[in-house]
Amino acid sequence: MRYQKISAVPGSQKNAHGxxxxxxxxxxxxxxxxxxxxxxxxxxxxxNSRANAALFEMFSxxxxxxxEAIKRGHRVGLCPSSNGLSCNNxxxxxxxxxxxxxxxxxxxxxxxxxxxxxxxxxxxxxxLTTSGRRKVIYQPDGTVTGNSNMTMTFCRPLxxxxxxxxxxxxxxxxxxxxxxxxxxxxCQKTAG
Length: 192
What we know:
- The mean pLDDT is 82.
- The protein has one domain (26-189): 3-Layer(bab) Sandwich (minor pseudopilin epsh fold).
- The N and C termini lie far apart (81 Å).
- Strands 3-2-1-5 form a four-stranded antiparallel sheet, with helices on one face. A four-stranded antiparallel sheet has the order 4-6-7-8, sandwiched between helices.
- The longest helix has 52 residues, at 21-72.
- The radius of gyration is 28 Å and the shape is elongated.
- 31% of the residues lie in helices and 19% in strands.
- The protein has 192 residues and is an alpha+beta fold.
């Protein structure tokens, strides 16, 4: 029977494997520090991605509304809606919006059969239009009712970035303006 000598001095064994408790604690502390630094930037990035998705959804809905009006040969409307059935009398679109057929030209969805789509927004941004524009009505020729352009501002309360905007001309054409300095004042006025 052979006996092996055990040393009480750490690190004196030639084939010792593993980590000491101190090394594991240092690794955990470094991981916590790196996570603490990364989380705020990650949440801002997530909000930016969601805001960009909402911007794309609205742009797509406006494009669809115009093409539906031209294709169907009658008016098509778009308005803010929180329930998916009726229009809100508001210039705040961040609770959702509906796209509807408007053959009777009253500017409102009359029945569920007139609804084309309902988009529910589940993000922490605010979508605001020019205060005089509570809905968008497309004519059969693709133009928009009203006497001025409509601007939709996408406010991001969790970041300090300038908002993005969708601008729609009376001819029905849509463009996106990114990081608009002038839109920041609207976002600050309507905060809360």
